[in-house]
Amino acid sequence: MKQLDRRPFEGRTGFGMAVFAMGLVVVMLLMASSANAQTADDAMVATFETADGSTYKALLEGEANLNRAEDALAEDGDAGIPNGELVAGDGGINAPHEWHVINVELVDVTIELCDATAAMVDDNLDYWLDTVGRFCPWNTVLIALDPVVNELPDTGIGSTMTELQLNLGLLTGAVGLTLVIAVVTGNVGGWLATVLRVRCVERRDRC
Q1: Residue 99 forms beta bridges with which residues?
Q2: Closest Cα to residue 145, out of 196, 53, 71, 204?
Q3: Which residue(s) pair with 141 in the sheet?
Q4: At what angle do helices 157-185 and 188-203 cross, to 10 degrees?
Q5: What is the predicted pLDDT for the residue at 149?
Q6: Contact 106, 65 (CB under 8 A)
Q7: Which of 38, 58, 136, 170 could connect to 110 by a Cys-Cys bridge, CB 3.0–4.6 Å?
Q8: CB atoms within 10 A of CB 105
Q9: Which residues are within 8 A (CB) of 82 and not within 5 positions of it... i.e. 6 or more apart?
Q10: How far is CA 111 from CA 87, 115, 140, 141, in A?
């Protein structure tokens, strides 16, 4: 009796698993992007007006900071002194300034050295970045509090690496999940054939 050729079926099975794996990866990456966007709920972009009328924007994070800012905005705008580390670049939120402030805390008292206005920092940026390193304008009024658009501003390579590691982890998890499904459904051969076929394409070998 002639044995049936099962290779076409196995090929279709392997292709189906590849499509399933790709779809699963897309879904998981979309979920990760949604989680990243949700982290913006714990942060707001605050606009401060300094003593000479010049303004700047800073990222406010944390429940205590946000509650204090919201209360101030509902009253006279006195949220305390926004004290933070001064770094180069607009941080994605503080254009047209060529600097921004990170790790901002709303406090009641700071040293006088970091007290200035946004315009003063602009006029002598190198000094403020290299010597002072902080910005804590005393006579400041909170004039706006806006949601963070999409993702939080990228302030360095660390956040990029974290996102890359997350995506690689999700991809690895998705491949592992397809293997588990293959074991449960008894189709490990189809799963292995799909992996080998992908490897052949990558190496441009004959499959």
Answers
A1: 88
A2: 71
A3: 49
A4: 140
A5: 79
A6: yes
A7: 136
A8: 17
A9: 46, 48, 58, 60, 101, 104, 105, 106, 135, 136, 137, 140
A10: 18, 8, 15, 18
Q: Could you tell me which of 121, 140, 164, 157 has the C-alpha nearest to residue 60?
A: 140
Give the Cα separation of 161 and 34 in Å (integer). Answer: 18
Q: Hey, what amino acid is at 135?
A: F
The pLDDT value given to residue 70: 94
Q: Exposed (0-12), middle (13-18) or buried (19+): which is 89, by Cβ within 10 Å? A: middle
Distances (CA, A) of 28 to 8, 36, 66, 123, 160: 30, 12, 31, 47, 18
In the sheet that holds 134-135, the strands lie side by side as 99-107, 81-88, 134-135
Indicate the residue type of 128: W
With a cut of 50, which residues of the chain have pLDDT below it? 8-10, 12, 34-39, 151-162, 201
Supply the pLDDT for residue 159: 44
Three-point CA angle 156, 158, 164, nearest 5°: 120
Q: Which residues share a beta bridge with 88? A: 99
Tokens 């007006």 identify what position?
49
3-state secondary structure 167-178: HHHHHHHHHHHH
